[in-house]
Amino acid sequence: MTLRQLRQIASDLGVSLYSRKSKEELVDAINTLQEETGLSLAAIEAEMAPAPRPAAETRVVFLPRDPQWAYVFWDIAEADRTAAQAAGAGQLCLRVADVTGLAGGSSHPHTLQEVVVDAQATEWYLPVPLCDRDYRVELGFRKSGPAGGWISLAFSSVARVPSLHPSEQILDQFTPFSLDAAPSALPAPPIEPADAGLHERLYQTATARWRRLGRGSEAFHELDDSGLSDSAFSASGVGLWASGRNESGAGLAARQRSFWLVADAELIVYGATDPAARLTIGGEEVPLTPEGTFRIQVPFRDGQQLYPIEAVAADGVQKRNITLEFRRSTPEANVNSLEAAVPEWF
C-alpha cells in the first residue's frame, strides 16, 4: 500500500495523529487495532485495486558528460515495443549523428555510428567521436532477417559536446570587482552596430575643433593622399649609396630592396545603460544591445578628441551624460605602406 492508502485506512479506524506518522508507524497502529477488532490488513489490501501507474512514453535523452563520453537513457512504451516486435524487431540500437551546423534533421555524411545495446537496458554510456560538436541520438530496432531494415522509435534533442581544450577566444572585457561585494554576472558580448560609417563620423565630430596638420600618423595619411613622395630620393639615383660606397670609403656590392612599416591605434568606447533608452555620442545615435550595452571602435589619431555621451530615458525626462577626452601625439613617424615602398640602394 501507498502512504496515502494507509492514512485513509487509519482515518477510518480512528487512529489518532495518523497524518504525522511514518509508514511503519501507521502499519503498527493499524495492526494493533486490527488485533482488537479482528480485521486483517492483508485482506483489506487484497481487496484494493493496484495503484495506477503512468504509462511509459517512448523517448530518449542525450546528456554529454565530458568531452569524451555521453550518458543516454530512454523509455519504450509497451505499445511501441509490441508493434516493433510484430514488425520483426531484432537488436535494440542507438544511432549517434553529428549535426553540427545543420538544421531540419539532417546529419553530416559518414558520421553516423550505430551502437548495439542490451534489449532490457534503459541507459548507456557512449564514447563521443569528436569533441566540440553537436550530436543527436536516435533510438530504434534493427530488423532481424536477411532483408534487414530499421525501425525508428525516438530522437533526442541536439546537445553540444564540450571542447577538450580551453577556448582560444579572448574577449577584451575588464570587469571591476570588490571582495566586499557579491559577484555579478558578466555582461553579454557586445554586438557591433550595423552602421559602418558611424565610427568615422564620431571621430570627425570629436576632432572637429582640434584638427590640425602635425607630424604623426594623421600627417602621414594626409601627405600620402596628396601624392607627395620622399624628396630624399632623386630620379637619377645620385647620392652616397648609389656608387656602392659607404662613409668610410670602402667599396661594397650594391643591392636594391624595398622596405616598409605601418602602425596605428584605435580607441574603444563602451558602456551600458537602460535598454529602452536613447544613447547618443556627439549627436550621433548609437544602437544598443538587448541588454543595454554598447561598444564603439573609432580611429585614434593625433590630436585631441572629445566624446560627449548622453543617455535619455524612454519617457524623455531622465538624462545621464559623460564627456570623455583623449589626446594622442606621435613624435616620430618614419613609416610607409607596402604599396608606397620604393626601391632603395644599399
Tag the structure with descriptive keywords.
346 residues; alpha+beta; 5-stranded antiparallel beta sheet; 4-stranded antiparallel beta sheet; elongated
User: Could you estimate the helical fraction of the residues in percent?
Assistant: 10-25%
Query: How would a textbook summarize the main sheet?
Result: 5 strands, antiparallel
Number of helices, where a helix is a run of at least 4 consecutive DSSP H or I residues: 6
Order of helices and strands: HHHEEHEEEEEEHHEEEEEEEE
Number of strands: 16
Strand content: 25-35%
Mean pLDDT: 77
Low-confidence segments, given as residue ranges, are: 212-254
Tell me, what's the shape? elongated
Give a description of the structure.
- This protein has 346 residues and is α+β, with helices and mostly antiparallel strands.
- 17% of the residues lie in helices and 27% in strands.
- The chain has 6 helices and 16 strands.
- The chain has helices at residues 3-13, 23-37, 41-47, 78-86, 198-206, 217-225; strands at 59-64, 69-75, 89-98, 113-117, 123-127, 134-143, 150-155, 159-160, 256-257, 266-272, 278-281, 284-285, 293-299, 303-312, 319-328, 344-345.
- The strands form 5 sheets. Strands 3, 4, 6, 7 and 8 form a 5-stranded antiparallel β-sheet that branches.
- Helix 1 (3-13) runs parallel beside helix 2.
- The longest helix is centred in the first third of the chain and has 15 residues, at 23-37.
- It is elongated, with a radius of gyration of 39 Å.
- The model is unreliable at 212-254 (pLDDT under 50).
